[in-house]
Write a structure and sequence with these properties.
This is Fumarylacetoacetate hydrolase family protein. Pfam families: FAA_hydrolase (PF01557). Residues 103-283 form the Fumarylacetoacetase-like C-terminal domain. Belongs to the FAH family. This protein is an alpha+beta fold. The protein has eight helices and 19 strands. It has helices at residues 36-39, 44-52, 84-93, 98-105, 164-169, 174-178, 229-237, 291-297, and strands at residues 6-11, 19-24, 27-30, 59-60, 65-67, 75-80, 110-116, 127-129, 136-137, 140-146, 152-160, 162-163, 184-186, 189-192, 203-210, 213-221, 246-249, 267-272, 276-284. A hairpin with a 3-residue loop joins strand 18 and strand 19. Helix 3 (84-93) packs antiparallel against helix 4 (98-105). The longest helix has 10 residues, at 84-93.
Length: 307
């Protein structure tokens, strides 16, 4: 059986600073990079060579706290309307449906900044609903990790939280519907790109649990993407430098009916084959996410926020 390998960011008990490591077989091998941002300054070939040459794991994975695999100047971006179901969902909710129909087939994809590094949460940490929103959904997405050269070096799982009620009022409200405290979650691990045989055909599933009941579930595949991963990354990097790389969530093919909305206390569970899992409880409003500010200077503060 092939050993599963993931790039992770973590903090050990009593430590003041996070480390970057390679997780496999329940152990974590500390890596020589000081941050994920520094790691993403390497070329794909250099990164693969250095990870392949890494020694034996030294730290028990159960003894550390895993952090979001993004830091420094690395940004999280997102692509919209990349699946036919996403186009249909946007048309259903919007007062200006034609803009979503046009962008689906347009040469230029919809791309937007989703989160700076410090606002990203990870597995077990809460995602949030805006207090002024009435219809909110998780968006399970394959996230592509690109280095500073625009080379795809890895994949992770993203929950691109979205306010359908705000976006539906006016397409110009997209930043408010998409960018707020608790809007972006990434799995703890980055799967190296060469470890994922075919990123163009990965099963994606999501389940929303409300107490013991599953109130929504859905599945899709990256094979249903309207654009290739290379095309999306090329469009992101064409006008912009990313000196510490970038993470791009590639859109969702799972959109609930408009009658469904997340509620405070729900639990969102996402799985992408060959890549990983991501589970987050749901809170409402800005105040329950205020711990992110403390975690800027005290990464160990994240332990209290995790399940």
């Amino acid at each position: 059986m092939r050993t599963r390998m993931e790039i992770v960011r973590y903090i050990e008990p009593g430590a003041q600073s996070p480390r970057v490591g390679l997780r496999r077989d329940g152990r974590v091998l500390p890596l020589p990079w000081a941050s994920v941002a520094e790691l993403l300054r390497e070329s794909r070939d250099e990164l693969r060579e250095r990870l392949t040459a890494a020694g034996d794991a030294e730290v028990d994975a159960d003894a550390v706290t895993f952090l979001p695999p993004v830091d420094g100047r690395t940004e999280v971006w997102a692509a919209g309307v990349t699946y036919e179901r996403s186009r249909t969902g946007r048309v259903e909710e919007s007062s200006e449906a034609s803009v979503y129909e046009k962008v689906y087939d347009a040469q230029r994809p919809e791309l937007f900044l989703k989160s700076v590094a410090w606002r990203v949460v990870t597995d077990g940490e809460p995602v949030a609903l805006r207090s002024d929103s009435t219809v909110d959904v998780p968006e399970p997405e394959l996230a592509v990790v690109a280095n500073r050269f625009g080379e795809i070096v890895g994949y992770t799982v993203c929950n691109d939280m979205s306010s359908r009620s705000i976006e539906g009022e006016n397409p110009l409200y997209v930043p408010q519907a998409k960018i707020f405290s608790g809007c972006c979650a990434l799995a703890t691990g980055i799967r190296p790109a060469w470890e994922v045989p075919d990123a163009g055909d990965l099963a994606i599933s999501v389940r929303v649990r409300r107490g013991e009941e599953t109130v929504f579930s859905g599945e899709t595949s990256t094979a249903r993407l309207h654009r290739t991963l290379d095309e999306l990354i090329a469009a992101l990097f064409a006008p912009t430098d990313f000196p510490d790389g970038a993470i791009l969530a590639t859109g969702t093919g799972i959109v609930p009916e408009l009658s469904f909305s997340l509620a405070e206390g729900d639990r969102v569970e996402i799985e992408i084959a060959e890549v990983g899992t991501l589970t987050n409880p749901v809170v409402r409003g800005r105040e329950p996410m205020s711990w992110l500010v403390d975690a800027l200077d005290r990464p160990d503060a994240r332990r209290k926020a995790q399940l």
